[in-house]
Amino acid sequence: MGGPEIIVTANRTKPQEPPTRMNPAKPQRLPDDRNQISSKDRVILVIEDDLKFAGILYEFMHERGFKCLLCEDGESGLLLALEFGPHGIILDNQLPGMSGLTVLSELKNNTKTSHIPVHMMSIDDIFRHSKNLGAIGCLKKPISSDEIGGCLDELERISSQATKKVLIIKNEEVQTKLIQDLIASRNVQSYVARTGKEAMDLLSKERFDCAILDLTLPDMSGFDLINRLQNMQGILPPPLYRVHR
User: Fold this and answer.
1) N or C: which end of the chain has fewer CB within 10 A?
2) pLDDT per residue over 54-73, tens digit each?
3) Can you give the residue ranges of every domain in the chain?
């Protein structure tokens, strides 16, 4: 499993594929590495419609030893993510057509791309919204080279981890077991918290790649837990995927 990436929707216990409605990718206007990628390369997909900034990111990726894919719109980005399965994605929110947040939601709702770590960029404050949808972070523009470097470090850390740690926050035993079976893999280690308090205790001690959250916990609602985690000192909540009964 490559990252924090399971959404369980109402009365279902497995991720759902989004409908196939994407148009063909638009012709690229910036050169990238799509024709020079081997199985050993570390690849980052940049979805950014500011051509000058995309070019700067492209050069920065090369300086850090990454191959880089570039596109200017969300639909092309989704197609490239499916075709190349990059190690990470840097995604702008202000895109022509579908927004970056919509692209993020599509990526996390597709089992073929849901494992790919995504770092958002925006001129607006969308940190909480993007984290709730599954982004590992969100940089507010304008962005410094140090911030880009930190973003790449985090993408690489998550994509290269041998074992992924998943926290299941759910009280109902049968459905918890179904989720554990669904994500079972030698590369996934699952933990279970039956209450919001147990989840906060675990998250204060361990770092998880994602958490699967039931909105109806015995001691608090899932939304209350999200708010508490976001206000707790020293805790960076993992991407949260919500379970509806």
Assistant:
1) C
2) 999 999 999 999 999 999 99
3) 43-160, 164-243
